[in-house]
Amino acid sequence: NKARTAFFFLFECEDNREAAQALFEAGFAWARRRGLNKMLGPKGMTPFDGLGMLVRGFEHRPAFGIPYNLRYYPALVEAAGFHTSGEIVSGYLGGSYRLPERVHQVARAVQQRRGLRVVRYRSRRDLRSLVPQLQQLYNDALGGTPGGVPLNDEEVAALAEQLLWFADPRLIKIVMKDAQPVGFLFAYPDVSAAVQRTRGRLWPLGWLDLLIELRRTKWININGAGIIEKYRGLGGTALLFSELEKSVHEGGFAHADLVQVGVENDKMQRELAELGIDFYKMHRSYEREL
User: Are residues 155 and 58 located together in one domain of the fold?
Assistant: First the structure.
């Protein structure tokens, strides 16, 4: 039987199994009426919403836009009949961290031998030149990645909006082969401290606190990195890692959160662990048959 899947997201509940079960039963009924036979989540509306439910790392502040929940939430979900469908980890990188020199050597060599170069941006106006190529770049870089879902036109427009209005242009880097983009590294200043202070309210002065935090935060979120499959085994991954370290140091950041690497992407996770990345948070996705 082919799965027809419903998703759940933004689950909120007190530590009460009966209340949680009632919420899920309402969701199950909604899905069944539409001919759906499976439920999976937490999963947001777009590829840019954080995935899963936090199961490890509760003592750490959540990265901006990444789900945080109370410790008892996973037990409520499991009591409703869900089982694990996947796990995603996030890694910590301190500002004093240095990659082994061999990684930078490989990065320099691949640029010389393969003709790759890294394009950096200085202004949002410069970033606009990237937007027309963003969809193909993102989708090609996901090729061969388990769970990768191509972006559609509306999602690309949403990503472009985020790039143009929220990102620090210095932290957006594109790997080029001649005139063709073949890889990317997206990083953002973490403004979650301001979101906590303002309780998520932009008015009357929350927006000002967010703008100030963009300039003074010592945290950076690295939440988008990829290179097309053709270059992954040819030193392209080392080039991304090298640029990742440069983003942290050149921006004067003391902390970096490498957010949500799927555990099924064991090759990248193994490479990152060997480089000293501390995977200190884990989110879990759940599923159940209806």
Answer: no
